[in-house]
Design brief:
- This protein is of the alpha/beta class.
- The radius of gyration is 21 Å and the shape is globular.
- Strand 7 and strand 8 form a beta hairpin.
- Helix 5 crosses helix 6, helix 9 packs across helix 10 and helix 12 runs antiparallel to helix 13.
- The two termini are 42 Å apart.
- Bound molecules: S-adenosyl-L-homocysteine (SAH).
- S-adenosyl-L-homocysteine binds next to helix 2 and helix 4.
Length: 381
């Protein structure tokens, strides 16, 4: 995902090594449902995008909030310290980040939260990362952070109070798509066209793969698309369950707070949108996050849910303006770039509103900081 990518020309398909592998799989087993296609493109052990590419930053395919401004990670670090206080200041705390990218967010969070020494002393950090190139970047970024850091492929169970941070992680999880036709819902899949090239096709929805359409979505029109990550969200929420210990998680991503119809699967290549079938394994693939669906999965797993609020609201409530002015006074030479960075994070027609923040927590914990629902302001007369 990118802040504001350009609209790329529809580029001709690229014969990546993964194309051969996918075509063989399709010939043998039939079309691949979208979730299997996305999973292969992102996580194929040999050729998957998130197994090898550097991806993030100016030289990669997209840029993320922590790479735009150090203040993003700093404020999330302070958020974690506040949550730890609301947990009663336990003397051990697991701080997990899902999909930590270049390690920038965590490095900024740990540096800023040194102002709460007892929080720092309690910390052990766990990074859940599938990309070996990025693990090396994270190792460098956190080399002198002063806190023990471990890497894992998934969230491991533990009986320790836990805080989870995830920025632009949910959008990279595989999703399924269905398309409405007069005969009913059909699953969208990737097959082969007459020339043997990858092409979107429609297959009958198998009984155990019927879409669970939310009640608020009615009257689909012909060709209307419904997307869902219900299964992966349920699996993630179940993984996050800690046994009787305080738990809080903060998920920030571009998405929508209410269920909606629409095809949001997109590929990004060098900061421009591309066809999702263009270059499997070499372009980033992602899709909007349905925060309502994530909230349902979290509640079903026994969590309470706070938010979502927009990224601008979250950062505003955590004091981004005050922090930026202090940083600008201390570094006058960098004032313009600091200001440009926060303007981008808060942009009303951009990251500030397209990105949402949702909190999940153990039910006995108080509501998470900065995620209270936005107050309805009384009308002015
Ligand atoms: N949070 C970072 C990076 C976002 S990009 C930032 O804000 O800059 C998505 C991140 O999730 C990358 O680090 C990617 O390698 C990782 N990732 C994607 N799918 C994953 C998976 N299934 N398991 C673990 N990490 C994953």
């Amino acid at each position: 995902m990118s802040d504001s990518p350009t609209n790329g020309e529809r580029a001709p398909a690229v014969a990546t090594p993964l194309v051969q592998k996918l075509a063989a799989r399709i010939r043998q087993h039939g079309p691949l449902p979208i979730d299997a296609y996305v999973e292969a493109c992102l996580q194929d052990p040999e050729h998957g995008y998130y197994r090898k590419q550097t991806a993030i930053g100016g030289g990669g395919d997209f840029i993320t909030a922590p790479e735009i401004s150090q203040i993003f990670g700093e404020l999330l670090g302070l958020w974690c310290a506040l949550v730890w206080q609301s947990m009663g200041g336990p003397d051990r705390l697991r701080l997990i980040e899902l999909g930590p990218g270049r390690g920038t967010l965590m490095a900024d969070a740990l540096r800023a939260s040194r102002v709460v020494p007892a929080f720092h002393a309690a910390l052990s950090v766990e990074l859940v990362e599938s990309n070996r190139v990025l693990v090396e970047a994270q190792r460098k970024a956190l080399a002198s952070c002063g806190v023990p850091v471990e890497w894992h492929d998934t969230v491991s169970p533990s009986a320790t109070p836990t805080i989870v941070l995830a920025n632009e992680f949910l959008d990279a999880l595989a999703l399924r798509q269905w398309i409405w036709r007069e005969s009913g819902w059909h699953e969208r899949a990737v097959g082969l066209d007459d020339a043997g090239a990858l092409a979107f096709v429609e297959i009958p929805a198998a009984d155990d793969r019927e879409p669970a359409i939310p009640a608020s979505l009615t009257n689909p029109h012909n060709g209307c698309i419904f997307e869902s990550r219900a299964d992966v969200f349920a699996a993630l929420a179940a993984e996050l369950k800690t046994s009787g210990q305080p738990f809080a998680g903060l998920f920030i991503d571009y998405g929508h707070s209410e269920p909606a119809f629409g095809d949001t699967l997109q590929a990004l290549h060098a900061h421009a949108y591309a066809d999702p079938l263009r270059a499997p394994g070499e372009d980033d693939l992602s899709a909007l996050v349905d925060f309502a669906a994530f909230g349902v999965a979290a509640r079903d797993a026994g969590f309470a849910v706070d938010g979502p609020v927009t990224q601008a609201e979250l950062l505003g409530r955590l004091g981004i303006i005050e922090r930026a002015s202090r940083l600008m006074s201390a570094n006058p030479a960098k004032a313009a770039s600091i200001e440009a960075g926060i303007a981008r994070l808060l942009a009303p027609v951009g990251m500030g509103t397209r990105f949402l923040a949702l909190g999940i927590r153990s039910v006995d914990l108080s509501a998470l900081p900065a995620l209270e629902p936005v107050e309805m302001r009384p009308p002015r007369y």
